[in-house]
Write a structure and sequence with these properties.
The protein contains 19 helices and 16 strands. It has helices at residues 21-25, 49-52, 62-65, 88-92, 130-135, 148-153, 221-237, 282-291, 296-310, 312-315, 341-363, 414-431, 437-463, 470-483, 487-494, 521-539, 545-553, 563-573, 579-588, and strands at 6-7, 42-43, 85-86, 111-113, 124-128, 164-166, 169-172, 175-179, 185-192, 198-204, 243-256, 265-276, 322-326, 331-336, 365-366, 388-389. This is Selenoprotein O.
């Protein structure tokens, strides 16, 4: 059965998922006194899981879609000691009066000042991102410094920094988890570059904080390599993301139980320097709303801070814009975005989130842990844990072993989980009296509209179509799911199909033979029928094959960061050889280019790639 691409009844994906669509959207536990908005829209984009068994909206936040800056050879390059620091987060928001790293509940505060405490022994620089250094105006020669690994492990202080760990909470797998916070990430402060852009630097794995709970505050090399590489790979794909400046080993070992099966082992330790314009999350607001009383004013302070520094256009709105949502009868104006800046802000957060999730669906990225503490208010991909890109197309795919029982965070559910998380964010703002019921419902309505606009536009471009064709795309996804077709390689090869209705039927599948493997007569007929319809659609577009191929190859990557590629680099790095990490970084910087000699990085996964610890991972890191 094929589900519709947009369901007015708000039902989600496949009914065969063990957790029903409605149960995904209904909070399992009440969020204290917060009333969750009731109006939720749902998305049905993919074929039924059962069947597998046999833009009218304004352009969204170009600053975050296109984070890479144009190289300016005349711009002065700085030494680390010359970076232009600012510390607005610490300066403008309430902090913890204590500065020790003893695990505890931190009340009435957005952060705790805490210094890195990681121990190192001959730390080494594994890799660095030239484009992130460019963002910071940092001279690349700084990576040749003998003390560079000491500095970015956190063992030596970085001049001008003012380290702190952020306090936040979150819903984890649908359950309110209370205080979480930066348990091993320590923010060094904010760099203001020559373009007046604000970038936070953060060391992940630099030691214990008050938010570490029972953990050690450290990180292992395997997970740090994955985060470093995927941060930069996603940026090169054009997907909003936190960035990664560099990765260093600590020279010490860290004990981890990768599969939580009682078999811990020692692994090499590492620290990755993450970079983002802000690391504020939905949970940064939730924790204070959950504590109510005087902490509700902190929600407002945090909202004001975010608007002032990251959404200044909202602060400076100078004209009224009447917006509406569908009540079921007719559109009625309910929200004037200039009458409540918090409503305007929440709408933009929702739309950025929707745009982000749509971009994930376009490249086949599955985050794996979409808890509310892993949702950025800037619409960035944040916290790379057990993520995975689709190999064989499977809407129920989850790369997270912890998620296997219910597959809450599987690929097909991501649009709905995005909405669920936006509902929690809206409820938080309601608790602080920053939104009313109508405004909260409107926020979710905007998420739904934005997601469908973006998703349809992405799929239209991926197929090189003149306009969105729901039936054609639904049938394609159904065929891909039935035959477990490689998601990335299929769309790359699809650009080789010619818009010629006169092609003999026996030759229609020739351009796709590398991905249509081991299909019988019945399935070959199904694919032939689809390609016929596709060719007819292309023939009426008036676009040349060459022009369409170029446009499709610009949105369908040849290279993605498949888990087995990461594992190959990890295996070498754990033996002290970092060349594969660096080579993989370079390949992923140009995912849409052919890159002569790099074809092996576009190959289908080998058989060993499907073993536990490669195709699927735990949250152990």
């Amino acid at each position: 059965m094929l589900l519709s691409h947009f369901s007015s009844s708000f039902s989600l994906y496949s009914p065969s998922l063990s957790r029903s669509p409605l149960s995904l959207l209904r909070p399992p536990l009440p969020f204290f006194r917060i009333k969750t908005p009731q109006k939720l829209r749902s998305f049905s984009l993919y074929p039924s899981m059962d069947s597998q068994q046999g833009s009218s909206v304004e352009q969204l936040s170009e600053d975050f879609k296109n984070q890479k800056l144009t190289h300016d050879s005349n711009r002065s390059k700085l030494k680390l000691e010359e970076l232009n620091w600012d510390h607005s987060f610490v300066r403008e928001l309430p902090g913890d009066p204590r500065s020790d790293n003893i695990p505890r509940q931190v009340l009435h505060a957005c952060y705790t000042k805490i210094s890195p405490s990681v121990e190192v022994e001959n730390p080494q620089l594994v890799a660095w991102s030239e484009s992130v250094a460019e963002l910071l105006d940092l001279d690349l020669k700084e990576f040749e410094r003998p003390d560079i690994a000491q500095i970015f492990s956190g063992a030596s202080p970085l001049f001008g920094s003012l380290p702190y760990a952020q306090c936040y909470g979150g819903h984890q797998f649908g359950m309110w988890a209370g205080q979480l916070g930066d348990g091993r990430a320590i923010t060094l402060g904010e760099i203001v570059n020559s373009k007046k852009e604000r970038w936070e630097l953060q060391l992940k794995g630099a030691g214990k904080t008050p938010y570490s709970r029972f953990a050690d505050g450290l990180a292992v090399l395997r997970s740090s390599i994955r985060e470093f590489l995927c941060s930069e790979a996603m940026h090169s794909l054009g997907i909003p993301t936190t960035r990664a400046l560099c990765l260093v080993t600590t020279g010490k070992f860290v004990t981890r139980d990768m599969f939580y099966d009682g078999n811990p082992k020692e692994e090499p330790g590492a620290v990755v320097c993450r970079v983002a314009q802000s690391f504020l999350r939905f949970g940064s607001y939730q924790i204070h709303a959950s504590r109510a009383k005087e902490d509700l004013d902190i929600v407002r302070q945090l909202a004001d801070y975010a608007i002032r520094h990251h959404f200044p256009h909202i602060e400076n709105m100078d004209k009224s814009e009447s917006l509406s949502f569908n009540t079921g009868k007719e559109d009625q104006p309910v929200v004037d975005l200039t009458s409540n800046k918090y409503a305007a802000w929440a709408v933009e957060v929702a739309e950025r989130t929707a745009s982000l999730v749509a971009s994930w669906q376009g490249v086949g990225f599955t985050h794996g842990v979409l808890n509310t503490d892993n949702m950025s208010i800037l619409g960035l991909t944040i916290d790379y844990g057990p993520f995975g890109f689709l190999d064989a197309f499977d809407p129920s795919f989850t790369p997270n072993t912890t998620d296997l029982p219910g597959r809450r965070y599987c690929f097909a559910n991501q649009p709905d989980i995005g909405l669920w998380n936006i509902a929690q964010f809206s409820a938080t703002l309601q608790a602080a009296k920053l939104l009313d019921d109508k405004e909260a419902n409107y926020v979710m309505e905007r998420y739904g509209t934005k997601f469908m606009d973006e998703y349809q536009a992405i799929m239209t471009r991926k197929l090189g179509l003149p306009k969105y064709n729901k039936d054609l795309i639904s049938k394609l996804l159904n065929n891909m799911a039935v035959d477990k077709v490689d998601y990335t390689n299929f769309f790359r090869l699809l650009s080789n199909v010619k818009a010629d209705p006169g092609i003999p039927e026996a030759q229609l599948l020739t351009p796709l033979k590398a991905v249509l493997l081991d299909i019988g007569k019945e399935r070959r007929e199904a694919w032939t029928s689809w390609v016929k319809s596709y060719v007819q659609e292309l023939a009426g577009s008036g676009v040349s094959d060459e022009e369409r191929k170029a446009a499709m190859n610009a949105v369908n990557p040849k290279y993605i960061l498949r888990n087995y590629l990461c594992q190959t680099a990890i295996d070498a790095a754990e033996q002290g050889d970092f060349e594969e990490v660096r080579r993989l970084l370079k390949v992923m910087e140009r995912p849409y280019d052919e890159q002569s000699g790099m074809e092996k990085y576009a190959r289908l996964p080998p058989a060993w790639a499907y073993r536990p610890g490669v195709c699927m991972l735990s949250c152990s890191s």
